[in-house]
Amino acid sequence: MSRPPLLELPHGARAHRLPTARGPFAVHEMGSATRGTALLIPGFTGSKEDFIGLLEPLAHEGYRVVAVDGRGQYETGGPRDENAYAPEELAADVLAVAETLKAEHPLHLVGHSLGGLVARAAVFRDRTPFASLTLMSSGPGAVCTAQQSRLKMLLGALPVMEMEDVWRAMRELDPPEAADDLTPPAVAEFLHHRWLANVPEQLIATAQQLLTEPDRTAELAELAATGMPVHVLSGELDYAWPVPQIDALATAIGARRTVITGAEHSPNADQPQQTAQALLAGWAVPAR
């Protein structure tokens, strides 16, 4: 999961609920769309807070920045029905948010990890609202074998255990560098609170998607061939999709490729200033 380095919103940002045709979504928003709008989609067990470090540097450069909790994530909520979180449903949510934003200037879509799978599904369904697609720490298909094992354990636990008990079990499986005693107390408390707020059926459905997602390299290559800028961005290390696999995806589809120094699976949280600059550079590239 992403561990945001800070939780306080920068001056000028606001938390609110964005109404859409598919219901309201909890968002963090900052800036005016002088140059464009950025829509940021979080990953598995993540939330809009994972992008707090990006809000100010992107807004400062003239972008309206909207980070969203997806259906069933943290403060958005959702039904206790796995079918509500099928890939096509989550893609439709992204398109509904895009429609509500009604961007007069370019609308840039950024998906982190699972959010990358959701974002690309939305663009495959309808690319017209979007000026670019950035896949952040998101690979061609299903996650790597090690993560598949962890997800299968989670899928076994969620239907039969309380969320609090699952949380404790997950913490015991964390690597030493992720230990709570190395995480600031306020952030550790937030991560616990966020986990408990997630809808279990959303976690089950999206974990299954991470396990079974087909390789979409061919579809992404077709998308890039239409002229839409596609940016593949990651840290130097990644536990969900090996970096060489992410490199190969970018090469195969002819995408812009950026590796964020000093970052791992969550460059948006690990190195937000570098990540913001990389996003800005990608958005400056005109469509072919």
Automatic annotation (TrEMBL):
Residues 39-278 form the AB hydrolase-1 domain. Keywords: Hydrolase. Gene3D superfamilies: alpha/beta hydrolase. One of its GO terms (molecular function) is hydrolase activity. Signal peptide: none annotated. The keyword Hydrolase applies. The keyword Amino-acid biosynthesis does not apply. This is Alpha/beta hydrolase.
